[in-house]
Design goal:
By secondary structure, this protein is mostly helical. The chain has five helices and no strands. 0% of the residues are buried.
Length: 138
Amino acid sequence: MPSFAELIQQSSAHAWLFIPSAILLGALHGLEPGHSKTMMAAFIVAVRGTVTQAILLGLAATVSHTLVVWGIALGGMYLWRGVDAETFEPYFQLASAAIIIGIALWMLCARGRISSKQKLRPGTPTGRISARSTPVTA
């Protein structure tokens, strides 16, 4: 069985495969971590939203995400036409690695400052329950 890339390279003989595979890959992409799914779910719970509101929120997020991706793709095709992508790819990978390492270092430094400035005890922003808090009675 030929690979997906080979099927695409075989011209329009397998064009029927493009749309269903794009929908499948998009659906799988939407199931990946991120995309503010937790935040949207918390919003629906907080406002005591209905199923219809949840569906409308999901559709709005899907449409806006799709429009942004298309906008970036079309803008990139217009601005970077004639540029060899293989030439710039290593530099983009280095830049993204530097950003990820920078964020990790920033998080470690912030965590170190919090730990050194205050003694970790119950009731601090670490998420622990305070021993001094009184139990909530109904």
